[in-house]
Design goal:
This protein is mostly helical and about 50 residues long. The chain has a domain at about 20-50. Helices cover about 50% and strands about 0% of the residues. The protein starts with 17 loop residues before the first helix and ends with a helix.
């Protein structure tokens, strides 16, 4: 089973949001305790994937 650690590429591109990746990695490493980082990304993704 493959773990999805970082967000996927932005829809329709082969580019990634560097800030989203930084937030997820900071959260997973314990540098920040922000619980909404993934939720914020999910909301952004929903708005941009129509």
């Amino acid at each position: 089973m493959r773990k999805e650690i970082v967000p996927k590429a932005m829809p329709g591109t082969n580019r990634w949001d560097r800030k989203a990746i930084d937030r997820v990695l900071d959260h997973r490493s314990g540098l920040i305790a922000e619980t909404g980082a993934n939720e914020q990304y999910d909301e952004w993704l929903a708005r941009h994937t129509g």
